[in-house]
Specification:
The protein is α/β, with parallel strands linked by helices. It contains seven helices and 17 strands. The longest helix has 16 residues. It starts with 6 loop residues before the first strand and ends in an 18-residue tail after the last helix.
């Protein structure tokens, strides 16, 4: 039996400054949104990030009662100029905090590798942890003079890392760049969720049929920034707790729907709001799974 762990959920990646079209600056990044979602699901949560400590601490001050923060010092905080929605969102890099090069030893039940700007750590240890990966930030490139982000195939080290993971979440737009990464993850036993906006989420696992889980309709979509990260956190938490992939994906789509119904991080939902959304969708006959995928159990779940 495991001893008491310091954290239930640890997200590793850059917390960013997101500069919106109207000039507003607010915290962003996969590590931030996913960690906040995990915290609002009742998990003891840590963000391990890199940047200018004072800047990041000030940005996250409103959330410090909900989660812990550890900042590896850097000369800059990763900053994106962001505009648009979903797959048409444009982002330009204004500053970069650099790669996370520390050898990380973490005491956590869930480790979420959440790169946003090719900062993914090369060395990490989290004995017995459930490991989730969102590879979006590992396939980004902004070498063009415009500074606009484009997608490239991940480095071989990232593909090898995927084989050590329990679950991956990526979008259908990222999938063409990640086929080898997906193959390695599935061969290693991971569940892979491929989101597709309003279209069904596809679940993949080695030696099993693919599964499509329908997503709930969001009648009034206000803000989708961070919705994919919210999905990932809810998915990882549900899987680690022993949920079957289909039910975990249904819970995660409900979490993303709650997030998109209002603006900013304040819209990240708590368990009761997500469960209410699930009940509402179920009453309307939504969130159906088209095929059966074997469940994945974990000891102690």
């Amino acid at each position: 039996m495991k001893g008491t762990l310091q954290f239930d959920y640890t997200a590793v990646g850059h917390v960013t400054v997101d500069v919106l079209a109207d000039g507003t600056r607010r915290p962003g990044g996969s590590a931030f949104y996913s960690a906040l979602q995990a915290a609002r699901l009742g998990r003891r949560t840590l963000i391990l990030t890199q940047g200018v400590p004072g800047e990041i601490e000030q940005m996250l001050e409103p959330y410090r009662d909900e989660l812990e923060l550890r900042v590896l010092p850097a000369r800059r905080t990763t900053t994106f100029e962001t505009s648009g929605w979903g797959p048409t969102r444009a982002q330009h890099v204004l500053a970069w905090a650099g790669p996370i090069e520390r050898d990380l030893k973490l005491d956590t039940a869930i480790l979420h590798l959440a790169p946003v700007a090719r900062e993914i750590p090369g060395h990490w240890r989290a004995r017995g942890a459930f490991v989730g990966l969102t590879p979006q930030g590992a396939i980004r490139d902004w070498s063009a003079a415009s500074g606009r982000v484009s997608l490239v195939h991940p480095a071989r080290a990232v593909e090898q890392m995927a084989a050590r993971c329990d679950a991956l979440v990526l979008s259908r737009h990222e999938r063409p760049h990640c086929e080898t990464l997906i193959e390695r993850a599935c061969d290693g036993g991971a569940v892979v969720a491929i989101t597709a906006e309003w279209r069904p989420t596809t679940l993949l696992k080695a030696r099993a049929s693919s599964l499509e889980v329908e997503v709930p309709v969001v009648a009034e979509l206000v803000d989708d920034l961070g919705a994919g990260d919210v999905f990932a956190a809810a998915f990882f938490v549900a899987l680690e707790a022993g949920g079957a992939p289909a039910s975990a994906a249904a819970f995660a789509t409900a979490a993303a729907a709650v997030r998109m119904q209002s603006a900013g991080a304040a819209a990240v939902g708590r368990t009761d709001a997500i469960e209410a959304r699930l009940r509402s969708v179920a009453a309307g006959g939504g969130l159906r799974a088209r095929l059966t995928l074997p469940g994945r159990s974990r000891s102690g779940g």
